[in-house]
Amino acid sequence: MSIKQGCKLNIKINRKNKIDGLVLLDNIELNSIKCVFFDPQYRGVLDKLSYGNEGVSRGKGRSSLTQMDEKTILNFIKKIDKCLCPSGYLFLWVDKFHLVEGVNPWFKGTSLQCVDMIVWDKTKIGMGYRTRRKSEYLVVVQKAPLKAKSTWTNHAIPDVWSEKAVKNHPHSKPIELQSELIKSVTNKGDIVVDPASGGYSVFEACKLTNRTFLGGDIEFGEE
Ligand SMILES: C[S@@+](CC[C@H](N)C(=O)[O-])C[C@H]1O[C@@H](n2cnc3c(N)ncnc32)[C@H](O)[C@@H]1O
Q1: How many angstroms separate the alpha carbon of residue 41 from the centre of ligand 1?
Q2: Where does the chain show beta strands of DSSP type E?
Q3: Of 11, 39, 61, 95, which sits most exposed with the smallest number of CB within 10 A?
Q4: How many domains does the chain have?
């Protein structure tokens, strides 16, 4: 059980918890988790790559979601660093803007380091000023000490992955890819954390792989 002893909040495993992810992370035992997924509600794309009508005619679903500024994202990462066990993994979903800007400064002062990256080919063409978006990026981050052989069991996962998302949230992520990653870095029954779960695709991946889900979203879930 990785929820801190004495936690007075109604946080449950294998449930959609409606909670601020920062509070959820504060209530997880230190150095206890092998695998965390984090899919921030980026403000960057709306600020920097917008067309000017975001939230008016286009992208209404996205704009109404609680956005995370840079400071909030850094706060999440610091707390994730604390709850990951040594050599545990953070799978960080990154949008095109942050990929180009670089995410490395976010890991300054933590024990986390980028070790790999996967391109998700969404199979569906979206919008874009020049080229049109068809991909998203998953940065693979590991807590020190960096170890590949003893922590990653599936060496058949390609770094470009095509999968159509099951859409129940504006930012639904691929369940099969997340399942493969979970199987590669955890064992049956292990806890997988997702502090900003959205449509709970990581929860679905946990059900498919017999892992224990611990996660929630500030807007979606049970109080
Ligand atoms: C990009 S979406 C996650 C999508 C998810 N990975 C999926 O597959 O459906 C980010 C989510 O973060 C949530 N969010 C924003 N601020 C939050 C916070 N402080 N704590 C928890 N969730 C937050 C938003 O409500 C949104 O649903």
Answers
A1: 6
A2: 16-18, 33-38, 84-94, 112-121, 135-143, 160-162, 191-194, 212-217
A3: 61
A4: 1
Q: 213 exposed, middle or buried (CB, 10 Å; 0-12, 13-18, 19+)?
A: buried
Q: Alpha-carbon distance 170 to 60, whole Å?
A: 9
Among all chains, which residue has been given the structure tokens 């998953």?
Answer: 138
Cα 106 to the center of its chain, rounded Å: 15
Q: pTM (2 decimals)? A: 0.92
Tokens of 166: 């099951």
pLDDT tens profile 1-21: 789 988 989 999 999 999 999
| Distance (Å, whole) CA 162 – CA 84 | 28
User: SS3 for 106?
Assistant: helix
44 is a domain residue:
yes
The CB of 154 under 6 Å from ligand 1? The reply is no
pLDDT in tens, 92-144: 999 888 888 889 999 999 999 999 999 999 999 998 888 999 999 999 999 99
- Domain hosting 152: range is 16-213
Ligand 1 test: best mutation among 64, 68, 78, most atoms within 8 Å of CB? 68
Q: What is the CATH number of the domain that holds 202?
A: 3.40.50.150
Q: How far is CA 32 from CA 83, 89, 111, 145, 163, in A?
A: 6, 12, 15, 15, 31
